[in-house]
Amino acid sequence: MIDESPLYLGFDLSTQQLKGIAITSDLKVAYEAVFDFDADATGFGIKNGVLTNEAEREVYAPVTMWLQAIDAVLQRLQDKGIDFGRVRGISGAGQQHGSVYWSEDGEHALQNLHEGKSLEAQLHHAFSYPYSPNWQDSSTQKQCDSFDRHLGDEVQLALHTGSKAHHRFTGPQILRFRSKHPDAYSKTSRISLVSSFLASVFVGKIAPIDIADVCGMNLFDIKAGSYNQKLMALAAGPSDLESKLGHVPEDGGGSFGEVQKYFVRRYGFNPSCTIAPFTGDNPSTILALPLRPLDAIVSLGTSTTFLMSTPHYKPDPAVHFMNHPTTSGLYMFMLCYKNGGLAREQIRDALPPSPPGISDRWSLFNYHATHTRPLGASIESSPAKIALYFPRPEIVPNVQAGIYRFTYTSQQPTVSSPSAWKLPEDDCRAILESQLLSLRLRSRGIVAPPSPNPQNVPAQPRRVYLVGGGSRNTAIAKLAGEILGGVEGVYRLDVGGNACALGSAYKAVWAVERKPGETFEDLIGSRWREDDFVEKIADGYQEEIYRMYEKGVDGLEAVEKSVLEEQASTTGAGQV
């Protein structure tokens, strides 16, 4: 019997690969394929998916490489047996902030593709500039300074756009592009983000920018729901930047149109296949759960990322706020830290060889982390041991590389003498506390108590989900519950490396199959098989120790302030 049940495609265009996943209506993965840029792309000379100009701190990717990848992934899916005629909807995710510059002939070329030629062959002249700045690019410090000043200061910029100015954000990148490549900019008819570029290829016209991804530009006024005209003028001068960027639809599940005839004729797609909005990689990640309001994801890799879905919009220069990609009235709160796993590994490596009965250094690290008293205090009234561990310069807060150890009593941090700490053993718990207390400090304004709340539980996440390599560390999980709380506990989320692509595929299902008024959370939540992906690994909120860590939150804030003041006095720089 021929299987004619619907399939939905989700794509993830990341720095190093394009991944495509096909799922069924009940969210089961049916097919997947990957195109690795370093291993599979031909003719670009890239490394780790990008090209670099170290002299100017530029990092960028060839746009036509992505076109090569689209055809390759579709062919690989077809080689695995997929019937594209079953695909009813397509969505995708793109690395955030990157921009694609279409030439005056770009949209005409998109609309007139011939199935006998590749996308790369037909669209390589569709761009006024052949490269897209990558999120690792740091060439825009001058432009970021201009953005931070333009509305008064970085606080005002964050209030309006959800973030202070960042090197990778699209507004500062456009400002620099217009200055460095004025001829190319003058020949630019439209500007896409990476996500909307990918959508444009599939729909055969320049697709709108998604309601969440637009918030990674420093151009969109989130509360006003429109582009900030002062910032648009800063980025583009007298030119009409809004016509280049296009209208931003509010419905994250609305249709951009039907799939381009090229894909119907070349691969056998159903002509009525719907192209749903494509979003950024971080917004798509929160769709892979799907997160409920006040759920938090802590991604524990080389760096640390904290994501939360929240109804509260309380922007600050140290964090990022974006519109939720599917649900009006919700926002995505994001924290990004440079120092995560690397800092923990340095403490682990400083430990002496494991004694008998302890198998390896991680086990020894975990032993010290879980057998040291909270905040290194012998009793609750004792001074707390609080430290910052930054092998790399940090951005949250903006502190130079180093280890900064303090003792803290009555809101007065004091630089510790080495004799005050038992080293390296005390560092094992202190580094985990430092990293988790920073998350609690910076998210405390957007969490809320559970409702109903007969036991008067304080504001905290509903659930804490750990992902990434560090999620398998039992000590991290234990301390996450003690410090961050989590009314329902601490969980490990494991969707392999497919979170962005899965989130996109789920979005396609919702866009096509939703009933009037049916939210993403309701539709996907009713079909999502939690037991396949989620495991409870630690208790969450515990009243006594959670209250004890209030002192730790205050202490970390005071320690950061002390370090920043000292840094400013010696370098003339530094701010939270």
UniProtKB/TrEMBL annotation:
- Main EC class the enzyme belongs to: transferase
Which Pfam families did the record assign? FGGY_C, FGGY_N
Which chemical reaction does it catalyze? Answer: D-xylulose + ATP = D-xylulose 5-phosphate + ADP + H(+)
Residue ranges annotated for the Carbohydrate kinase FGGY C-terminal domain, each copy included: 297-511
EC id:
2.7.1.17
Listed under GO cellular component are:
cytosol
One Gene Ontology molecular-function label = D-xylulokinase activity
Keywords in UniProt for this one? ATP-binding, Carbohydrate metabolism, Kinase, Nucleotide-binding, Transferase, Xylose metabolism
Q: Name one GO biological process term.
A: D-xylose metabolic process
Which PANTHER family does this chain map to? SUGAR KINASE, XYLULOSE KINASE
Function, as annotated, reads: Highly specific D-xylulose kinase which participates in the catabolism of xylose. Xylose is a major component of hemicelluloses such as xylan. Most fungi utilize D-xylose via three enzymatic reactions, xylose reductase (XR), xylitol dehydrogenase (XDH), and xylulokinase, to form xylulose 5-phosphate, which enters pentose phosphate pathway.
The similarity comment for this entry is: Belongs to the FGGY kinase family.
What's the protein name?
A: Xylulose kinase
Species per Swiss-Prot/TrEMBL record: Letharia lupina
Lineage, broadest ranks: Eukaryota, Fungi, Dikarya, Ascomycota, Pezizomycotina
